[in-house]
Design goal:
Strand content: 25-35%
Largest sheet: 4 strands, antiparallel
Mean pLDDT: 92
Helix content: 10-25%
Number of strands: 32
Structural class: alpha+beta
CATH topology of the domain at 32-168: Methylamine Dehydrogenase, Chain H
Low-confidence stretches: 1-38
Oligomer: single chain
CATH superfamily of the domain at 32-168: YVTN repeat-like/Quinoprotein amine dehydrogenase
Radius of gyration: 24 Å
Strand order of the largest sheet: 1-2-3-4
CATH architecture of the domain at 32-168: 7 Propeller
C-alpha cells in the first residue's frame, strides 16, 4: 500500500483492531517468518537497527530477549539470531564494518561484537553507568559515546586498536559526564568534535565537547518526547522529532482535532547556532507539523535522512512511516507494523527498514512510492496475554481522537513529560496540572490530583474518555491496561546508581522526615496517603486540597507540585515553603533532601 494518509482510514483502523486483539502474523499473511533455527516463541521487542556491508546485512537489537536478529536484505529473511545480552537498547556499526557495538540496558554494559556477514560473536564488554540506552561511534572509530538513562550520565569510551590490527579493539572509559536530565537520543557532530544529547522525557538538549570531555551548554526547547535526532543531508541542520503539549488548550475534541492541545512535529535547528553556547536556537528553527485535522500522527519516533535529502519518520502511535522533504515531511505515508520506533535507510537510499517494536518484525519500505514491500517476522510470537496487550494499548494513539496521542505522549514510557495539561481530572477546566509519573502507580491509590478517583480502573477509563477523547474501553482493554500499568516500577535514584549516596546523611534525613511529620501525608512504603490534604498552595481556581503524590522516584522528576512550579526538592522546601511549620536548619534541609533523593 502507498499514498497519502495510509493507515488513518476506516479500513486501516479495522486492520489495526485485528492487530490489537490477535496475532500480528495472522493478520499479515505476507510476513516472512523466521527460519526454524531462530529461538523459541518469545517477545523480542526490536528497538534499534544497523546496516553493514553496503546494506547487505541488517541487524536488529532486541530489548525483550537480549538477542540480535540478523537479516539478509537480499533475500529478505532472517539468517540467524544470537543471544548477546539481557535487554539490548541500541546498536552501531564501526566505520570499518568489522565490529558492532551494542548497549545492554538491563545488563548495564556495552558489548563489542565481531561481525563477519551473518556471524556475530562477543569479543569483549565493559560495564558502564546503569541503564545505557544509546551509543554513537566516531567517524574514525576511535571513540564511542554512551548515554545512560536513569544514571543521567554520558560516558566517553576509547576504542583502542590491538597492535596486530586484526583483533577486536579494547574498550576503556575516557570520561564520565553528569547530565541535568535523563538522556536518550544522540547526534554526533564529528567535524566539530561535539555531541548533542536529548532529554528522554522533556525538551532538554545538551552539547558536549568531546575533546575536553565537558558539558558545554544546555538548552530547554518547547518540546517533549524527542524520539529521533539526525543531521540534514547537507549537514547544516539538526533534525529532531518531538511533541509539544500546550497548557493553554483543553482536552476537548475540538482542541485535539485542530492540534491545539498536542502537536507532533519535526523540528529543524540551525546546527551552527546549536553549537554556539548561549545562542537562542528557537527563533531560527523550523517546526513542521506531522498530521492534520482529522488525521493525527501520534508519537513520532525514529527518523532517517535519505541521500536525496528526504526524511522518513516513524509514527509510532499510528503504525505508519511518513516520508517527504524536511520542510514537508508528511507528504506520503505508508502503514507498517506495530509501534515503529527505529528506522534506517540503505546506503543507496532505495530501501527504508523499520523496526516494529510491538510486532516483533521489520518492515521494508520502497521510498520511490512510499510502499511497504515486505514485512519480516523476527520469529514465532507467543500468544498475546494481558501484559502484552496492555503495552500495545498504552502506546496506541488510535485510542485517542483522530490518532493525535497515546498514553505515552504525556507519560513517556510510563514516566512524565514534566508538563501541564488542562484536563477534566478535577472535573473542570482552568487549572492545568502536571502530568504525573505512572511508574509505580499500581500501589498509589487514590488517583487524580484531587484524589477524586478511588481506583486505577476508573482513572484509566476516565483518562481515555475525557483526556484523549477516545472510545469507551472494553473490559478486556481495561484489564490489559491495568496489568501493564501495575507492572511498572518506580525509577531508581541516580545518586544511588552512581555510587554517590551518603548513607549517613540519608539516615539522618529519614529521621528529619519522621520528626517533622512528613510521613503523615507521605506514608511508607509508597510515601503517599489514602486521602487529600490542604497544602496551602492554590491552583488557578483557588483549590489547595491535593492528593499527595508518591515520593518514590522523586529524584527522576524535573518538575514538582501539582502545577510543576518547583523544579527541585530544594525549591519545594524553601522557595514554596512546603510543608508549612517551623523552618529547617541547613543541616536538616541537606539531610532531608538526601533522604528524598534516595527514594
Amino acid at each position: 500500500m502507498s499514498g497519502r494518509r495510509v493507515g488513518a482510514s476506516g479500513l486501516a483502523l479495522i486492520l489495526g483492531a485485528l492487530v490489537v486483539f490477535g496475532d500480528a502474523t495472522a493478520a499479515r499473511p505476507d510476513a516472512k517468518e523466521a527460519p526454524t533455527q531462530a529461538r523459541a516463541s518469545h517477545w523480542r521487542r526490536p528497538v534499534a537497527l544497523a546496516l553493514t556491508d553496503d546494506g547487505r546485512w541488517l541487524y536488529a537489537a532486541n530489548r525483550g530477549s537480549g538477542t540480535i536478529s540478523v537479516i539478509d536484505t537480499a533475500e529478505l529473511r532472517i539468517e540467524a539470531e544470537y543471544d548477546i545480552g539481557r535487554g539490548l537498547s541500541d546498536l552501531a556499526s564501526s566505520p570499518d564494518r568489522r565490529f558492532l557495538l551494542a548497549a545492554d540496558e538491563v545488563g548495564h554494559r556495552v558489548l563489542l561484537l565481531r561481525q563477519r556477514g551473518a556471524k556475530l560473536s562477543v569479543a569483549t564488554s565493559l560495564e558502564v553507568p546503569p541503564y545505557p540506552v544509546s551509543l554513537r561511534i566516531s567517524a574514525d572509530g576511535s571513540r564511542c559515546t554512551v548515554a545512560s538513562l536513569w544514571s543521567r550520565r554520558l560516558t566517553i569510551l576509547d576504542l583502542i586498536p590491538e597492535v596486530k590490527g586484526h583483533e577486536a579493539p579494547r574498550l576503556r572509559v575516557a570520561r564520565t559526564i553528569d547530565l541535568p536530565f535523563c538522556p536518550r537520543r544522540q547526534a554526533l557532530i564529528d567535524r566539530a568534535a561535539k555531541l548533542i544529547v536529548a532529554d528522554a522525557f522533556g525538551g532538554g538538549l545538551a552539547v558536549v565537547d568531546l575533546r575536553r570531555g565537558e558539558l558545554e551548554s544546555v538548552r530547554t526547547l518547547p518540546a517533549h518526547n524527542i524520539g529521533g535526532l539526525a543531521l540534514s543531508a547537507d549537514g547544516q541542520r539538526l533534525l529532531m522529532t518531538q511533541q509539544l503539549l500546550s497548557a493553554l488548550a483543553h482536552t476537548s475534541a475540538d482542541d485535539i482535532h485542530w492540534g491545539f492541545l498536542l502537536t507532533n512535529s519535526l523540528r529543524s535547528l540551525r546546527l551552527e547556532e546549536m553549537l554556539m553556547p548561549g545562542a537562542d536556537v528557537v527563533p531560527g528553527s523550523r517546526l513542521m507539523h506531522l498530521g492534520e485535522p482529522g488525521d493525527g500522527a501520534g508519537d513520532p519516533a525514529g527518523l532517517a535522512v535519505l541521500p536525496d535529502g528526504r526524511v522518513a519518520v516513524a509514527l509510532a502511535g499510528v503504525d505508519q512511516v511518513a516520508l517527504g522533504p524536511p520542510e514537508d515531511p508528511d507528504v506520503w505515508r505508508t502503514g507498517v507494523g506495530r509501534r515503529p520506533t527505529a528506522i534506517v535507510a540503505s546506503p543507496d537510499g532505495n530501501r527504508i527498514y523499520v523496526a516494529n517494536t510491538l510486532d516483533d518484525s521489520v518492515s521494508v519500505v520502497d521510498p520511490s512510492n512510499a510502499a511497504m514491500v515486505a514485512e519480516i517476522a523476527l520469529g514465532q510470537r507467543p500468544p498475546l496475554d494481558d501484559l502484552a496487550l496492555g503495552e500495545r494499548l498504552f502506546y496506541d494513539a488510535r485510542l485517542s481522537h483522530e490518532g493525535w496521542m497515546s498514553c505515552h505522549s504525556c507519560h513517556p514510557d510510563g514516566h512524565t513529560n514534566n508538563l501541564r495539561a488542562d484536563t477534566l481530572g478535577d472535573d473542570s477546566y482552568g487549572a492545568p496540572k502536571r502530568a504525573p509519573s505512572l511508574l509505580g502507580c499500581g500501589a498509589t491509590a487514590p488517583y487524580a490530583w484531587d484524589g477524586g478517583m478511588p481506583d486505577l480502573e476508573g482513572q484509566v477509563r476516565k483518562s481515555v474518555r475525557t483526556s484523549m477523547r477516545g472510545p469507551d474501553l472494553s473490559d478486556e482493554q481495561v484489564r490489559a491496561l491495568l496489568t501493564y500499568l501495575r507492572s511498572l516500577s518506580p525509577p531508581p535514584s541516580p545518586i544511588e546508581l552512581t555510587g554517590r549516596q551518603d548513607a549517613k546523611a540519608v539516615a539522618r534525613g529519614e529521621a528529619v522526615f519522621q520528626r517533622r511529620h512528613c510521613n503523615r501525608c507521605h506514608q511508607p512504603p509508597e510515601y503517599t496517603a489514602l486521602r487529600s490534604y490542604d497544602v496551602g498552595l492554590a491552583d488557578e481556581m483557588g483549590r489547595s486540597v491535593f492528593n499527595p503524590p508518591s515520593l518514590r522516584g522523586l529524584s527522576q522528576r524535573d518538575a514538582l507540585l501539582h502545577d510543576g512550579r518547583a523544579r527541585s526538592p530544594e525549591e519545594v522546601l524553601t522557595r514554596f515553603g512546603h510543608p508549612g511549620g517551623a523552618s529547617l536548619s541547613n543541616q536538616e534541609l541537606s539531610d532531608l533532601i538526601a533522604f528524598l533523593r534516595s527514594l
